Amino acid sequence: MIVAITLCPKKASFAPMLFTGRMEHGIRRAAELGCDAVELNVQNPTLIDTVAIAELIASLGLTVTGIGTGQAYYEEGLSISDTDTKVHEAAIQRLKVQVDFAQQLGGASVIIGGMRGKLDGSPGGNSWSEQRQASIEGTRAAADYAAGRGVRVLIEPINRYETNFINSIAQGLEYLDEIDHSNVSLLADTFHMNIEEVSLADSILAAGERLTYMHLVDSNRRATGMGHTDFKAVIGALHEIGYDGPLCAEVIPLPDDETAARQHVEFVRANW
Fold this sequence. Notes:
By secondary structure, the protein is of the alpha/beta class. It contains 10 helices and 8 strands.
């Protein structure tokens, strides 16, 4: 069991994260609350002191499970599905910078969720299939680069209200088949699953060994145990597939950062 929380160095428009704008404080609190690791959502690693962050994390006996990349899309519009060559190449380059950061932190995975963007298929523009193919090529480029640096790339299905492709676990697995790359696997987020899946447990079982990372988030995007998600069934399914990866909170800070972080750690340790 690897219990983790998601942190961010700055306030962001996309904010299901804890201690935003206070990442160093969040890292310290994660250790004090009994986390094993943290996930870092960083828009551009070149704009922060990555050496100091890596040293602080190591000094506290923590590891980094993942690097979230979504802010590059939400704040800058960088998307690997964009067929504008400049934007597409800039998105791939940013993913490579994220991979370098992940390597510096000991091989954390790099998450492609929001950075897929959306398919627009606008009249006179590129078709959905062309944009989807661009995303596949972008993911392969990132995975090739990451493979040589001991870093795994993760695809995260996101609900239909935030993007219009790869919404469900089944669609995520189909995308993995299309990519056909040994260095790419699946991240499942129970908040998105609560919207898209008929059965969270059955979807986990279907993913099997291709599922290597979990965001445990309740139905209302609050910390585990603060909504109506049946985590007993989720955890049972994870045990059945032999899951031993991160159990990370990518949650909104309600009622506050401290309470949400503590709730996740205590709930997961009590129920795993």
